[in-house]
Amino acid sequence: MGLRETFEALSRESDLSRLADFLNDQNISDVAELADGEKDLAVLIMSQLEVQRAAGVFKILDLSAQKHIIQHLPPQKTAELLNELPSDDRTAFLEELPNEAVRELIKLLHPEERKITLAQLGYPEESVGRLMTNDYLAVEDDWTVREVLQHIRQHGKDIENLDVIYVVNRQGQLVDDVRIREFLVSAPDRPVHDMLDGRYIALNVHDDQESANRVFKMENRVALPVLDHNRVMLGIVTIDDVLWVANEEFSEDMQKMGGTEALDEPYLEIPIIKLFQKRVVWLIVLFLGEMLTATALSYYENEIQRAVVLALFIPLIISSGGNSGSQASTLIIQAMAVGEITMRDWWHVMRREIISGLLLGSVLGLIGFVRVVVWSQFFPETYGEHYVFVGLAVGCSLLGVVIQGTLTGSMLPLLLKKMGADPAVSSAPFVATIVDVTGLVIYFTFAFLFLEGLLF
User: Fold this and answer.
1) Which CATH number do you get for residue 9?
2) Are residues 179 and 211 in the same domain?
3) Under 8 Å CB-to-CB from 201, ≥6 apart: which residues?
4) Digits of tens for pLDDT over the chain (456 positions)?
5) DSSP H helical ranges for 223-345
C-alpha cells in the first residue's frame, strides 16, 4: 500500500496515535508532497507531526499551503511551529503576510525568537538580512581545540550546518572561519589563533540578495557569515535560501520578460481580478506604443497608395527587427542576472551586437533580396518591372532593422539598470514595440532611396 493509501486508511479509522506514528516515520519530502495535495489534509498532517518534523515540512510547502495551515491550526500548535522554524524561514513566511497578521503571529513567539524576527524584518526587503539565520556555531580565538570540540558537543546537536565553525573575538567581530575537519585532526592543546589565516568570505547584512547569489556561485560555499558595518557577526546565510531566492528571481524575470507584472501567488490560486490587474497595465502600455506604429504608417500613407507593393513587406520588416531585439534583450538580461555582464561592459556589448546585427542582418537581407528576385521570375506582375530595386530596398531595410533591433535589445536593459530599474522590464514585447516604429522609418527611408522617381 502506498503512502497516500495508508494515510487515507488510517484517517478513516480515526486512530490519531497510529496516524501520528506513521507520519513521523516518513521522509519529510514525502510528507510535504502528501500535504501539498489538499490543504485540509495538510492541516491534519501538521497537527499530528512532531514539532521538529512539522517545521521541516512547513518550510518546503508553497506559500498558499503555509497560509492555510497557520489559519486553521490550533493556536498552541501554531505557536510551537513558529517557534521551531529557523529564523530565516520564519521571516520569509511572515514578510508575505499582511501587517495585521504579522503582529498577531509575532505575539506567539518566545521573547528571544521575537527579538530575532523583529530584527530581521527591520532590514530592507531583498537584503541579506532577511535571509540570515542564527543557526550557527561561533568560538573565540583564544580557545584551544579541546574547548572548541567540547563546545560543539554541547551546542551542535541542533545546528543544521556544522561544516564550518566561525571564530570571533570578544567583541563578537568575525576573525576567520575554519572547517570542522581542521579541529578534528589538530592536537587538543593547539590554540585556535594558530589555525587562522584571515582569508574568510563574508556578506554585509545590507547587501542585496542577488549579490549574495553571485558570491555563493563564485566561492562555492554552502554557507557564508553575515556581518554588520563593524564586522560584528550577526548570522549566516545558507545555500538553500539563496537557491530559493534565485528561483523566485528567475520566475519574476520570466514573467516580466513576457510583458506582465510579477505574480506573488501561484497562477492557479491568484484571483482572476488580480491576474487581470497584473496583465492589463503592460498590455495598455504596449498598445499605446503600438499606436505609434499606426501613426508612422499614416505618415507614409500617400507613398503606400502609390506603391502598394511596399505594404507587402511591412510585417516582414518589423517582425525581423522585433525578433532580433527580443533575442538580444533575452541574452543580455540573462547574462546580467548571472553576473556575466556589468555596466562597465556596455561598450563591449554594443560592439558585439553591432557585429552580430551586421552578420544577422546581412543573412536576412540577402534572403529577402533573393526572394523578391526569384519570385519575380515566376510572377512578374507582383513586384513590377523595378523588382530589383524593390529587392534592394527590402534587403537593406532588413539589414538596418536587425542592427537597430539588436542594439535596442542589448542597450535597453543596461540603460534601465543604470537608472535603477529592473532590466527584466525591457521585455521582449516592449523591445518589439520600440523596434516596430523605428523599423518602419528605416524601411521607408530605403524605399525612398531606391524607388524615388520609379514608383513615387
Assistant:
1) 1.25.60.10
2) yes
3) 215, 219, 221, 224
4) 567 777 777 777 666 778 788 888 888 888 888 877 667 778 888 888 888 888 888 888 888 888 888 888 888 888 889 898 888 888 888 888 888 888 888 888 888 888 888 888 888 888 888 888 888 888 998 899 999 999 989 888 777 778 889 999 888 899 999 888 898 899 999 998 888 888 888 999 998 887 888 888 787 788 899 999 999 999 898 888 888 777 766 666 665 655 555 556 666 667 778 767 767 776 677 677 667 777 776 776 676 666 677 788 888 888 888 888 888 888 888 788 767 888 888 899 999 999 999 999 999 999 999 998 998 888 887 777 878 888 898 999 999 999 999 998 888 888 888 887 767 665 666 777 778 888 888 888 888 888 776 655
5) 239-257, 272-299, 301-306, 314-337
Alpha carbons within 13 A on the beta-carbon side of 160: 17
Decide if 421 is inside a domain: yes
**Structural domain total, the chain:** 3
Same domain, 315 and 434: yes
Q: What domain range includes position 159?
A: 138-246
| CATH code of the domain covering residue 167 | 3.10.580.10
Cell of 280: 492589463
Q: Tell me the three state secondary structure of residue 149.
A: helix
Length of the chain measured in residues: 456
pTM of this prediction?
0.61
Taking residue 247's Cβ as centre, other Cβ atoms within 10 Å add up to: 10
CATH of the domain at 303: 1.10.357.20
CA atoms of 330 and 410, how far apart (whole Å): 8
Nearest C-alpha neighbor of 218 from the set 204, 230, 233, 203: 203
Q: Identity (one letter) of the amino acid at 94? A: L
Q: What backbone torsions phi and psi does residue 58 show, to the nearest 5 degrees?
A: -60, -40
Cell of 189: 592543546
